[in-house]
Specification:
Length: 503
């Protein structure tokens, strides 16, 4: 399969998302697409997938010129895209979503094929469950299985390692290599993880401010890639969160807990069991202290999602005790958690964290009602100057890139937060945006806020957390100090093999 982008240009109002992008993709290769948030990567891939029409330019696929594609024509050409936010129908069952766009199948045949692919990919699904019960990561896995089943000739994968274990990532990379090598197919990996691009990709394309800024082949130099992505000055700051060496091979020294040893607990769970309309967790006993930064790891669906929502008051405590600053929270409503200083940062930004159609200024009004008399000043001081949200107060939240949506969510965290619960807070962010997230979290922890976060990147958990909670099969499988742990040892806890992890 041969693909050629010619002068692809796309504008959203005053924003030039793609500015004359011209590039050829060679068959049989895995192409990495890197760039900071808002660089135009997603727009370019949506043009190729038929989801967006460009304003100027054309695509040439196998020698045939296309002024624009639709999702149907892109699918007919064998182009499939796995987005960060999966495109599915939550009320339908897993097996029904799996059959979308594919050949007609009976329920029995669809379930059998899904289970076969799941075994090959290292995933696990309950075919008859509604997709609404799946996590964002599990929905991505289902979409990937569907694309592979539909025999796509070109796969576009946007952060495909979200929510999978190191062993599952190894299986996925093997499958992608085999896919690209078979009959001249193409894989495009959109990622912010330089290590993944270096490990998997035959070449790396870098976009910056809507343009193709560079094209590189192995061996890659991380410094050159960062400089091409951010510019010479910004690259030095952006390189800070990049972990030197593989955490799988060496232990990474985590930040020390700033809490004095005699400090009173912030939260105490005693045989506390969380549940929601989808599932339930067995009881667990745990103590959280002020100023701790606690990473939560687990394969998608392992129970960590419900645990975080229980801490935030979004799932109820069905038994046991949950004390927050000495007050019993069992049976309390979400408003009581908010009054106690709990703030939740969801992984699904537009679906749960923001109002897509409301303006940025409207979000400022809702987040800080006491400042209603000076919203322009608040927006300028806090949102633009402090968190670098685009200075477009009238723009709807849905118009922002993923990185800017996360900056908007950061802006809405009250300074008086005592317990911050964050689901995958750096998911899909470039290294500069990731650095900004952690700069703010460190500042909160230094002031006594307890930060509990989940993350699919075990390297990041090891580098940022002082303590790690690992979930397996909906159980709290381990409560570990970060010092001395490795990606491999955490991966074994995540897959239920702690004895080997200790060994």
């Amino acid at each position: 399969m041969d693909v050629f982008f010619s002068d692809i240009t796309k504008r959203y109002g005053r924003i030039l998302a793609n500015d004359g992008v011209t590039v050829a993709l060679m068959p049989g290769r895995i192409h990495g697409l890197l760039g900071e948030n808002g660089a135009g990567k997603s727009t370019l891939m949506r043009v190729l997938a038929g989801q967006v029409a460009c304003d100027r330019g054309f695509l040439e696929i196998d020698g045939t010129r296309h002024e624009r594609l639709t999702p149907a024509t892109a699918m007919a050409l064998g182009i499939g895209m796995l987005s960060q936010d999966p495109l599915d129908f939550p009320p339908l069952s897993v097996w029904e979503n799996f059959t979308l766009g594919g050949p007609p199948r009976s329920r029995t045949a669809a379930r059998a094929r899904l289970l076969e692919l799941s075994r090959n990919l290292g995933f696990f699904f309950r075919p008859d469950d509604p997709v609404s019960r799946l996590t964002v990561a599990e929905r991505q896995q289902l979409e990937l299985a569907r694309l592979i089943d539909n025999d796509a000739r070109l796969l576009i994968l946007d952060e495909p390692t979200t929510g999978i274990s190191p062993a599952q990532k190894d299986i996925l990379f093997r499958i992608l290599r085999d896919f690209a090598a078979s009959a001249g197919r193409i894989v495009i990996l959109v990622t912010h993880k330089l290590a993944e691009a270096e490990e998997l990709c035959d070449e790396v394309l870098i976009m910056r401010r809507g343009r193709l800024a560079g094209r590189f082949e192995p061996p890659y130099d991380a410094g050159t890639l960062l400089e091409t992505m951010f510019g010479p000055e910004a690259a030095q700051a952006a390189a800070e969160p990049e972990i030197a060496g593989e955490a799988a091979a060496v232990s990474v020294k985590a930040p020390e807990v700033v809490t004095p040893p005699d400090a009173a607990p912030l939260a105490e769970l005693s045989e506390a069991a969380f549940s929601d309309e989808k599932s339930a967790l067995p009881p667990c006993t745990l103590t959280l202290y002020p100023g701790e930064v606690i990473g939560v790891a687990g394969v998608a669906g392992g129970g960590q999602e419900l645990f975080l929502r229980g801490l935030a008051g979004l799932a109820r405590v069905r038994q046991g005790s949950f004390r927050l600053v000495g007050a019993q929270m069992r049976g309390r409503c979400l408003a009581a958690f908010l009054r106690a200083g709990v703030h939740f940062l969801p992984a699904s930004r537009l679906e749960e964290g923001l109002f897509p159609g409301l303006s940025l200024a409207d979000h400022a009004r809702l987040g800080f009602p006491s400042e209603h008399g000076d919203i322009p000043g608040l927006f300028s001081r806090r949102f633009v100057d402090r968190f670098h949200v685009p200075n477009q107060p009238a723009a709807p939240a849905a118009s922002l890139s993923g990185g800017n949506q996360q900056r908007l969510l950061l802006s809405l965290i009250p300074d008086a937060t005592r317990l911050l619960v964050a689901e995958s807070p750096t998911r899909g962010l470039d290294v500069a945006s990731t650095a900004q997230v952690w700069e703010h979290f460190r500042s909160l922890a230094a002031s006594g806020t307890t930060v509990v976060f989940s993350c699919e990147d075990l390297d990041e958990i090891l580098a940022r957390a002082g303590r790690i909670l690992v979930f397996f099969n909906r159980l709290l499988a381990a409560d570990l100090p970060a010092v001395g742990q490795t990606v491999r040892s955490l991966g074994r806890h995540m897959t239920g093999r702690p004895a080997q992890a200790v060994a």
